[in-house]
Amino acid sequence: MKNKEPNWTKNELKIYILLLCANADSKIKKKELKLIKSSADEATFKPIYKEFKKDDEDTQFDKIEYVIGKHEYTHEELNDLKRDVFKIFNSDDKFVTNERYLEKVLDNILY
C-alpha cells in the first residue's frame, strides 16, 4: 500500500466505499455526493473525501481490503452496506458495466 494504513471506523470505511462506487463511471455526480454526505457528518466526510481523491484505484482497493480485515461485520451490516452501494449505483437510474464489475470486486472483498 502506497499510503499509511488507515485506521478508519466502519462508518468512515462505508463513506470511502460509497465514494468508490460513485466514481465507478469516473465522475462523482452531485446527486451521488449528496447521498453519501447524508450518511455522515461533515467532520467525518471531509477528510475521507480528501483522502479518496488523492488515492489511485489500486490504493483504494488496498485500503478497503485492509480496513475490512480490521473489523468484524455481521451479516446484517454487510447487507446494509450492499444496499447503500446499490443506492449509489442506482442514483442515476443506470447500472453501467463499470458498476457491475465493481459490485463483483466488492463482493469478493466483503464476503
Automatic annotation (TrEMBL):
<protein>
    <recommendedName>
        <fullName>TerB family tellurite resistance protein</fullName>
    </recommendedName>
</protein>
<dbReference type="InterPro" id="IPR029024">
    <property type="entry name" value="TerB-like"/>
</dbReference>
